[in-house]
Amino acid sequence: MNSGDIAWVMTSTALVLLMVPGVGLFYAGMVRKKNVVSMITLSIISMIIACVVWVVYGYSLSFSGDVSGFMGNLDRAFLRGVDISSGEPIPEMLFMLYQMMFAGVTLAIITSAMAERVRVSSFIFFGVLWLTFIYIPFAHWLWGNGWLSKMGALDFAGGMVVHVSSGFGALALAFLLGKRYGYGEHSIEPHSIPLTLIGLAMLWFGWFGFNGGSALQANDIAVNAIVVTFIASCFAGLTWMAVSWIKGKPGSLGIASGVIAGLASITPAAGFVDVAGAVVIGVISGILCFIALDLRIKRGIDESLDAWAIHGVGGAFGSIALGVFANPSISGYAGLMYGNANLLVSQIIAVIATITYAFAVTFVLAKITNMIIPMRVSIEEEYVGLDISQHGEVGYA
Amino acid sequence: MKMVIAIIRPEKFEAVEDALAEKGYLGMTVTEVKGRGEQKGIKLQYRGTSIEVDLLPKMKLEIIVDDGHVDEVIKTICENARTGKYGDGRIFVVPVEKSVRIRTGEITE
Questions:
Q1: From B18, which residue of chain A is nearest by alpha-carbon distance?
Q2: Nearest to A380 among B14, B42, B57 (CB)
């Protein structure tokens, strides 16, 4: 172990934590002002739930041992035996905390589909189930020596573990929860674009830790990760802006969405592709996620804040693209461009498996939650807003 | 000349605005307001305790029309702002003494 690695991952841990309220603010600006407190609070609650689950059994089930490739075991429940002074390349205790932040951000992203209509007690219950049966298995499958990583699938910083899981989970939730009252009948407009842009700033900044820290060392791969991450995000922002400009004006929400699409798409690939790969991933993701968002609106699906179109589609696309563009001179993994078709095949299998599992299991978990505590608030509660009905507060006095 | 003051549900504003425009009533002043009627807002039941949301957000429209058009404006607003539930709002009509167009100084009495 060396102090440079430890310092970088400690810093990255704090950067990823900043993304949790970042998601909250990003979302909060896009809802009506009667739900601004609720939207930010759902993200904060996500982090709290993730911490508790992670300490009690989440970390252990993700990263301790292996039970038939599906989940870990309970040897490290309550962080028993997780050491501050040993571990490679960083202390295991630090690795545990760094990974905990990812669980929190992922749960925060999925709140997109519950915007302005979820009962907070039900969300807490659902959140525990969702982390247990979707996030933890995914973390194990790809990062904890589970079946997908044994098959050769790669996910550098969470294209599938974080973005496919939350994005396609959000789509399933949108189908199950249904539209917000009045959706499609009268306009439901973002109440504060500056709030969303502050959220974007926090996400953009935090993503350096999200992808850079995933090298788990202060090394050349970490440098590659932050460089390609930033480049992809800018190219994606540019193409989204261009596409929306053709249809009208380059709105700030579109540009922000493009940046996030680029970030989500480069996430699985950041430690494997070079700058040229990042440019292609960025350019395509800006257009692809725009099309997905457009399709979602045309179909009248109220996946309110587009976790599916941006995180889900972006994460899935980036996970496949890494099978094409992985450059062996970065981390030793070669993609199709470098004459290796096997990686692309395992990436496609992994993407199909995670999409199917995330969508189906989220649907089932939400159905179970609905039977125990209804996920939607009553019409009156929705009408006055979740800030008052769920938290007894107002965002703007 | 009369001023029609309508207090309506915010989510019905677009429908009312469009319907009025279709009939040629374009001029209006709009304010976001809060208010309550005789039912005093909405009462939410939450595990035995109740939260009262006293003042709910509404939109206030002020429209100046000739006496002969008042009924049509009222009818249009009612038709497009009604849900049939408590909280659909109220319409008031008050006389207007004088109207001055600032750009030209033109006065209508």
A1: A186
A2: B42
Asked if the Cβ–Cβ distance from A187 to B14 is below 8 Å, we say yes
Residues of chain A with pLDDT under 50: none
pLDDT tens for each residue of A180-219: 998 988 888 999 999 999 999 999 999 999 999 999 999 9
Q: What is the CATH number of the domain that holds B87?
A: 3.30.70.120
Question: Tokens in use for A187?
Answer: 């306009």
Q: Which residue has the tokens 């704090």?
A: A14
Q: Please say if the pLDDT value at position B49 is more than 80.
A: no
Q: Which residue of A has its CA nearest to B9?
A: A383
Contacts of A186 in chain B (CB under 8 A): 11-15
- Which residue in the set A185, A378, A388 is minimally distant from B53, CB to CB? A388
- Return the domain boundaries, chain A: 3-391
Residue of B8, B9, B11, B86 to mutate, interface with A, max A Cβ within 10 Å:
B11
Contact state of A389 with B57 under an 8 Å Cβ cutoff: no
Domain A3-391, CATH 1.10.3430.10 — does that match? yes
Q: Write out the two tokens for B15.
A: 């429908």
> How sure is the predictor about B76, in pLDDT bands with cuts at 50, 70 and 90?
very high
* Other C-beta atoms lying within 10 Å of the C-beta of residue A52: 15
Contact B94, B3 (CB under 8 A): yes
Residue-number span of the structural domain to which B24 is assigned:
2-108
Q: How many domains does chain B divide into? A: 1
CA distance B11 to chain A (A): 6
Q: Return the ∠ at Cα A86 (arms to A82 and A89), rounded to 5°.
A: 110
- How far is the C-alpha of B64 from the C-alpha of B73, rounded, in Å? 10
